[in-house]
Amino acid sequence: MATGNWTRVSEFILMSFSSLPTEIQSLLFLIFLIIYLVTLTGNSLIILVTLADPMLHSPMYFFLRNLSFLEIGFNLAIVPKMLGTLLAQDTTISFLGCAIQMYFFFFFGVTECFLLATMAYDRYVAICSPLHYPVIMNQRTCAKLVAISWFPGFPVGIVQTTWLFSFPFCGNNKVNHFFCDSPPVLRLVCADTALFEIYAIVGTILFVMIPCLLILCSYTRIAAAILKIPSAKGKNKAFSTCSSHLLVVSLFYVSLSLTYFRPKSNNSPESKKLLSLSYTVVTPMLNPIIYSLRNNEVKNALSRTFHKTLALRKCIL
User: What is the pLDDT of residue 1?
Assistant: First the structure.
């Protein structure tokens, strides 16, 4: 298409769940609003409790605190706009707003991959080298690992978003998704995107699959170490220290794989929307619940914090 025939796009229309009846959209709004509030409350509680309780000042909870902060950011980048499209039918998003949303999606998504790998390494050291754990996972090492986990998201988000939004867009500005994800926005481009798609594949391998392989390696070593423990009680105790993280990793990577690595013939826009909900909306809500219900230390810390708050309130009154 000649340059003179391109229509400059100043905003996009998020199709979201517009194909559904209004009553269903209202129901979805209530469901997603509840999930959103639970996500913010649950992850905020994890951050506050792990900061306030001295018993939780350990590397594992330092990484968990970062994960909760990340999940809050992930939700703030996507869910409020989705709620707006469902409640007020405000489906438009500016060109810049779409680019910013996509940037934060890449930033938080890549960071989560590396942070989950870091948490897997922490569990590997705790189980396979328990005597050396305090020395290896000291405060300085933990800070470096967190910095390494957060850093890759910046260049990935900037390069991929800037490159994609530098393409010319045709007259069609309807994004068939509930947020500005790369594949549906890329379909609106009227230019050759072959090089960008190659970059996207390479980026996926580097920044998604490599952390996944590191997690698999860590848990292979962990499983081998657990099997060498003679007593069943010892095995259960060792497994319980990493079961919450393993469940969180499984939820994240299974939903991510089903969304982005399925054959295109089996990947309709509507099914992709449903699968995208699992890692953008549902998983961030489940993470604090999983760590709270399956972790006695977190449950005890929540109980102590609750009783301290009640005692303090009584003293004030």
Answer: 39
Beta bridge partners of 152: none
Report the predicted TM-score, pTM, of the whole model to 2 decimal places. 0.90
Are the C-beta atoms of residues 21 and 32 closer than 8 Å to each other?
A: no
Over residues 276-297, the pLDDT tens digits come to 888 899 999 998 888 876 677 7
Mean pLDDT of the residues in the chain: 88
Note whether 4 and 168 are within 8 A (CB).
no
Is residue 109 in some structural domain? yes
Give 244-274 pLDDT, tens digit per residue. Answer: 899 999 988 888 888 777 666 556 777 788 8
3-state secondary structure (DSSP) of residue 170: coil
Compute the CA torsion angle 271, 275, 276, 279 (nearest 10 deg): 180
Q: How far apart are the C-alpha atoms of 242 and 237, rounded to whole Å?
A: 9
Helix (H) or strand (E) holding 93: strand 92-94
Look up residue 238 and give its two tokens: 């060792």
Q: How many domains does the chain have?
A: 1
Q: Which domain holds residue 172?
A: 11-308
Task: Fill in the amino acid letter for 23.
Answer: E
Is residue 316 a part of any domain in this protein? Answer: no
